[in-house]
Amino acid sequence: MGVDQTVSAVPEDAVGRRVSCGGERATVRYVGPVPPTTGLWLGVEWDNPDRGKHDGSHEGVQYFTCRHTKGGSFVRPAKVSFGVDYLTAVRQVYQINTEEVLSEEMSVNWKDIKERSFESLPSVLLGRREVNSPGDSGEIRKTTPNVQWLDLSRTLLSCWEDVAAITEQLDKLEGLQLSYNRLCLPSDPSAHCQAFCSLKVLALNSCDLTWPQILECAPMWPQLEDLSVDENNITELQRPEGVLQSVKLLSLSCNPLLQDSVLNMSALPRLEQLNLSKTGLSVIRFDDAAPGSQTAMFPALKNLSLDQNNITEWRVVDELAKLRSLVQLSCRGNRLVSSDGNPKTANQMLIAKLGRLVVLNGCKIPSEDRRGAELDYIKMFGEEWLKAGGRSQPSAQFTCQHPRYQSLIHKYGAPEEGELKKPEPFALKNQLLKITFVFPDDADRKPIEKKLPATMVVQKVKGLLYRLLKVPAADLMLTYTSPKMVGTEFEIDSDLKTLQFYSIEDGDQVLVRWS
Q1: 74 and 184 within one domain
Q2: Helices marked H in 14-109 — which ranges?
Q3: What is the mean pLDDT of residues 460-468?
Q4: Do 252 and 113 have their domain in common?
Q5: How many CA within 13 A on the CB side of residue 471?
Q6: Does residue 74 lie in a domain region?
Q7: pTM across the whole model
Q8: Is the model more confident about 1 or about 198?
């Protein structure tokens, strides 16, 4: 009896279906016995590989395969849920209080009232619900016909055909959230165009997708304007030929991109906003344009996010100046350092180098700040400009490093000798940084606070720590955190660089670990 119930609870098409178990999501890869045990088992591949125990094998027999060596488990059918259809989930979430609607005198069918109330829903939020299918044909169109925004993130949907069977009944659907799902690719994507004909916004974050897979699906979304594909398996970005041509906003953050392939996104003619944060980007070049002129690439790009990358070279900023429409830039968490090591000076240089910029790091640039930044920039590099023959014609090398300098001279006039900013050492009190050393792997050791010169090299910092900790300097590994960027740890990877090179500021914490 017990075995029969278990067997009947497992769908015939269970392999490939999505299940939930203990709050985690997984895909069924095997249904059957696993000797020497008795009864039925499901072999599952977890979305979170840390949840698994093996690669789908048991006692030398391979029952299924996983992408990760420890991504699989065997579980009993009674422990998993195969989910419910869309309308069952809607009814579970959007229950209406009967007492508010019905009085004792009203003899009316409660189900009719409840169903009619769903008709007016402009959005349906079923994130984390165990939706597995569209349910009976045509019922969604009758029940929730006015939905414009649908959240189906972290559901148990297993293929794009099922998603399309839901959305084709929602004629007004403009926004769809499908993040944290694992969807099999459709055999004929163009057959589902009608199912997404009004769709403008689509989120597919953390769906284990590659860029070629996204391009394969793209014919389904002919009107798409906003595509978010953060935290996937996207590395090389192939040119989107004939698809995604209406996209205005593209977010690719938290993908390990091959940086040269980023330029292929210039094939999106309407792209206005591009998020490349946390993609490992360190270089970008527009070789079709000389320093100080405009690139033909990304003609519509207004807003660019480059936070938390590996950008250290100012020539990258000079390349960004070639973008004809760029007015908004976010560039936090990179190591763009000015000669004085002051982050405020680095921001001034960004403003001065990018003449059309209106918003930097989320803050609008007041006209007086722009004027101040540009005048300071003229003074900062005035001596270099004079040495490079600036009074007549500056050298090609200087123009390459400072493409905008000459136009700033035309705007404000040449700097006078007395105005030039000569690098002067800070007063000692300004140089000293209050730094707290903390020891995350040694809970008993109290933090140590020290005042150190900004010009102190990391090697000397490690020497100081050796005297305090009696741990050889070669074994010490240092990182730092700043209250301005909570939750981000920056690596200190060179013993020969100064604290100011790493933009370490007063009040920062240095985390000390050792092997």
Answers
A1: no
A2: 86-93, 98-101
A3: 91
A4: yes
A5: 15
A6: yes
A7: 0.78
A8: 198
